[in-house]
Amino acid sequence: MHFLTSRSHMKKHIIKFLLMAVALAFTIKAGASDRWETLRAINWVENPTNQTAVGRFGELGPYQFRPATWRMHTARPFNLATQRAVADEVAVMHYEWIKRALEQAGVAANSFNIAMAWNCGVNAVLAGRAPTVSYNYAERVANLVETIKNSQRSMVVRESQGSDVVPVIRTEDHFDALQFRVLQDPPRFVIAAG
Asked: How far is CA 193 from the centre of its chain?
């Protein structure tokens, strides 16, 4: 009898462990997903047409790294910032660095705050002294992240209707380019002399 109760007790512990492992895996997956979405949005705001020319402040590549930021995370030559695979690696390192700094300071490491720190620096965000242009930049990134998330949700629902199995959606296949709707009658602006 004692053997049976210890077996059921052991099963309960195994089930608890498995549930915690699944929850942890989901949390890690959700974190990676948020990172991908935020980095994708930063790329769209920073360099939507993937220009390879050096910017006026020395920024380069899909995430518009400045040389000092690049050197924080890698010893590779800065001209590799234009190569997508290398730029993505450094972007992930920079994202994680910003995220850790915000979390250590007790600030929410959401897409808005990460984008603002990406634009004007972690210290400015922590001091509450981010310029308006950085605030607007972070709003644009956060809005794009929400758009990406909503698009992903609607794709899963659309593709799974009529099926018992929810398909795995590879989001990178669906968001390679922004699409803009062209207005038929563009707005007209009039300058009033007063």
From this structure: 44
